[in-house]
Structures are given as structure tokens and as C-alpha cells.
Amino acid sequence: MDIAALRKQVADLDEETARPDLWNDPDNAQRVTSKLSHLQGELRRVGDLRQRLDDLSVLYELAEDEDDSGSLAEAEQERAALQKDVGSLEVRTLLSGEYDGRDALVTIRSEAGGVDAADFAEMLMRMYLRWSERHGYPTQVYDTSYAEEAGIKSATFKVSAPYAYGTLSVEQGTHRLVRISPFDNQGRRQTSFAGVEVVPVVEQTDHVDIDEKDLRVDVFRSSGPGGQGVNTADSAVRITHLPTGIVVQCQNERSQLRNRDTAMRILKARLFELAERKQREELQELSGEKKEIAFGSQIRSYTFHPYQLVKDHRTGVEVGNVEAVIDGDLEPFVKGYLLWAQGRAE
Description:
Blueprint: H1 3-17, H2 26-66, H3 69-93, E1 104-110, H4 114-135, E2 139-146, E3 152-159, H5 164-168, E4 173-180, E5 189-200, E6 215-220, E7 236-241, E8 246-250, H6 256-287, E9 298-303, E10 309-312, E11 318-319, H7 322-326, H8 331-345
Parallel strand pairs: 4-9
Antiparallel strand pairs: 1-3, 1-5, 2-3, 4-5, 6-7, 7-8, 9-10, 10-11
């Protein structure tokens, strides 16, 4: 990691926060202070890891001098924990894309498989929220469309963290679940699918032009599990971008105005990512490069029966503890993909 560059960024942002007119633009002020806080955290993290590494060598020396099996076991335990934390930090060094450092906007949709697919989509949503929680990353759920029997039809939420987009973008694609269906009274094995879409959150410097004439705006009541109404007023907002067919909606606020504002931000992020993807595809076509794995490609399988295994079909990474993965342990897959993508690029 380029610690000198990190320190310079922190110094520049620190100087920016001292400007008396900073809060004249609250959105920009929030972005600056948030980025400063994240970078300061990164510096502390590296410093803590270096200190732990120094302390570890002392632990081993003490265990050897005193011939103490308990101290040796303690040193081994700390070494394993330190190796895991350094490995997690290494993932950051693999993220070098233009928008990798941004917050992430994640949308999950149930696909083929009926009620099992809706249940699987909700499992995936919980998986990503648990992953965020384990790392201390704030999340905000903008919209959840519940299925009638169980699970969700779709959900959109934001993960606010440095490199959230770069990290979670490896999850984009179709996920497959194989298990004995809890919704089948004959106890048959069921295969179901859910799609994950990840786009970077747009910033003020991004130019996304939207003509109001290209939008259809619908308002409706927010709904909860089982289809019951949550709000008595029509506060939820759905926006359709007619030229592209992109549909976004938001129902997390009681204010229709706030929901519309959030829905517009989601739409801008989707349109921004669409324009960037088209540009990348055109450049790849001109250079003769292979296209990236597209949204809709099957990327990972979660098998509960007849054996337990989660397998990434792109990288070959496998984990036998399905429950741990579903509970948010995504590190093996994130790191495996980034290393695989780096090797392919080289």
C-alpha cells in the first residue's frame, strides 16, 4: 500500500474540511468528511497491523524462552488472525478500477424457481447485509418488494464504505441454489435462481442527463410481507425510464418527495453504469478483447443437498461451509475473483 499517498490524501482532505464555506454544499461536505474518516481509518488499520506483527515476534520469543506451550498456542492463534486480517487488506490493493472506491448500490431479484427463488433472493439480501454488518459498513434499504408466499421479488439497498463497489461488483450475476425445498410437501430437490446487480453510486461530478419527458412516475402504497400495506398514504414512488425500460422504486421513507429523490438517485446510478458498460464494450470490441462476464451469467452455486458446497464457477473457489457463506463470509470468493481477474488481465 502507498502509505505516503494515503497520508497526503488525508492532509488534503483535512485542509478541505477546515474551509469555512464547506457546509454551503451539504452533499459535498458529507462526501469529504466521510472520505476523510475512511482514509484515517485505513491508516490506523495499517498501523495496528504493523504493531501486531511486531508484537507477534515478541510472543514467539517469550514462548520459546519459557518453553511455554500455552504462550505458543496464543502466538499461533494471533498469527492465524493476523494472516486473515492482512489477507483482507490485500484485497484492497487489488481494487484499481476507476469507480472501485465508491459506495455500492445493490439490487437483488428472484428469477426462475417460484417461491424457492423468492426465498433465495431474501437469503442473498441477508447475506450481503450480514457481510456489511460484520465489517461495520452502514447500509440503507431503499426498496423491498415482497413475494406473496415467502421471500422477496426484489430489493435495492446501498452499502456505504470505501471500495464497497469494487468489492461487491464481483457478486454481479446469477446465483443458483440447490436444496430440498421447504415449500414442497413431497420433499423434492429444487433448483432456483436469483440475480444480483451492483452499480457504483453516482457523485456530483458525474454527468447524467435525464429528460423529464422520458420518465413515467407512479405512486403507490408501501407494502410489507404478505402484501399488507405499510403506509396509509401513497408515498412509495416508481420511476420508469422509457428509452431504456429501466424501472426503479423507493418506499423506505414516509415522504413521497424523499422517495422520489432517492429513486432518481438510483436511476442515475443505473443509467451511469449502463453508459460506462456500453463504452467498455465498444472499447473491447475495437481492441478485440473478450467481453466481461455479463449480468445474467451464472456465477455461483449454493448446494445444500445432496452435499454442502458453495462454488464459484468463474474461479473454481469452493467452500464447504454453506451456512458460513450465507451468514456473510464472502472473503474467499471476493479475493479469489480479484486474483483471478488480475491474472487474466496480465
